[in-house]
Amino acid sequence: MKRLTKSEIIFKILAYILIGLFSIMALYPVVYAFSASISGKIPYEAGKVVLLPKELNFQVYKLIYEDKGFWISYVNSLFYTTYGTAWSMLISITGAYALSKKRLLFRRQLNFFVVFTMWFNAGMVPMYLNYVNMGVANKWGIIVAFGVQAYNIILLRNYFEGVPHEIEEAATIDGATEFQMIRSIYIPMSKAAIATVTLFYATSRWNGYFWARMLLTDPMELNMQVYMRILVENYQKMFDDMPIDLPYAADSYIFAILVCSIIPVLIVYPYIQQYFAKGVNLGGVKG
Amino acid sequence: MKILELKNINKIYPGGFQAVYDCNISIENGEFIVLVGPSGCGKSTLLRMIAGLEEISSGEMLFKGKLINDIAPSDRNIAMVFQNYALYGNMTVYENIGFSLTVRHENSDIIHEKVMKTADIVDLKDYLNRFPKNLSGGQRQRVALGRSIVKDSDILLMDEPLSNLDAKLRTRTRREIVQLHRKLNKTIIYVTHDQVEAMTMADRIVVLNNGHIQQIGTPQELYLTPENIFVGGFIGSPPMSFIEGEIKGNRFIAKGMDLEMPNDRMSALKQYDNKKVIVGIRPEHFYIPLENDSNSNILECKIDVREFLGADTLLYFYVGDNRLIAKIETKTHTIDNMEKIKLAIKMDEIHFFDIETEKRIR
Could you tell me the pTM of the whole model? Predict the structure, then answer.
């Protein structure tokens, strides 16, 4: 085994310490939210819940189970995320494929326009007015109008550019159309990038709050983030108005919804993660 | 029957660089044509123009008499094997071979039948469920071959298909391609920079240099009667040695060399009397003379480097400023480095080239 030099050992120790710190920083809020959601009112309000739950109480989860508004917003969020991500991926993949081709007319200019949107946008008020005037200030606006992010297109474009051009030429000679090429070659060969971008879109849509709050006015169309915000704004007051002394804190209910909101991500992530592995195209061309 | 005709084909890239100049080739059905030349000579460009992957700047390309300049690659009835295999890494061997049929929405039974038949031809039946990454270089190249065969196209194009294989595998695959050609009787247009591949595989060879066709002919024609200095030097391994000198009557005189020319060459060389020419001698046209050899064209030379090849030995030596190579049979002579020996030249076999045009003097 190779012996490490002193500086390598120091570097490794520092790296592990930093990774450990970042992991704790990322994990702690999740653990805390879960602990707070199942802790009793007295220890929570006394600030005794630091890491582990105190005086276990699962009543908030029963309450959530019976909360119709929560389930409506939950299903809405799933709807926006599923269809929104599918729509975003459709545009991103076809757009990135076109932009990756040197034969695309005005390729440089088109690439510039896409990148330009990463630096500048029209601003919040004009964007809002634009959505309203286009008649998409509703659930379809959330899905269709927020179709793509330039960063994701660039990411996919760069990955597509990495597919050896001989493979495209071989497919051309084999008689594949552009769509067959995207479907049978580019998408399967870019699984890692596509999984990453899908995850980016899905999490941004699942966590989408601002524009959902701005555009969604019908209570039946609210997504979970907006529903949670409304709860945060109103729940303490509702809680205080309640005659009986409940065994859990008002915040526990919010934390419980927060925990519920991460569940889909926790379920989906391992399935997507398997595609992050590189080397899908190993052996296709001699490097 | 002519299957493919190239008439005055030129390729000029945007920016003005001309890769192919006025190329004229006529290819018969079932022929094995090899385009050979050094890197950057335009051979791959020419092949890609035949495939339809590069646009033709000017000239006509006729397939069975029909103009195909603007026909898409998929409609040209060609198949191509790429230098780096260009296999679909996400597909199994079966899917790779059957891809061209799948995209044309062929019936799955027909696809299966054709893929199995092809896998049998290229000896890949046991590997159909494997992915390219799990195959050796030779097997991958066979998949690429299979993919081109399954289409049953009229012309197979091969762009340096063996260059990524090791020497032993290259020799074996070379043989397999020749056998395949015999079996399928398809027209093959094959690009290589390796003249040994060209000589061993081709029915006819097209030698290219700097975008110009230097000579088209059978391997024997190219070897025995090279059109110019380039072909003489490119075809044959080890290469032909060249010596610049002057014709004086019936003698060729160069620094350290005074050769008497055979009478049958004199008529062609008469116009070059007192003029400079270049003589080309192949290594095997030197021999170690016997004691009483009647040949008067004998050089006395000191061996600079000796390379033992087994049956033959290569001798590198200087005559004047020219470095020459001789090949002699090992079993008859053992020669050491720096040894002084006599070497005779088979004057009937040597070539004379015009110093200005570089063409062979006939």
Answer: 0.82
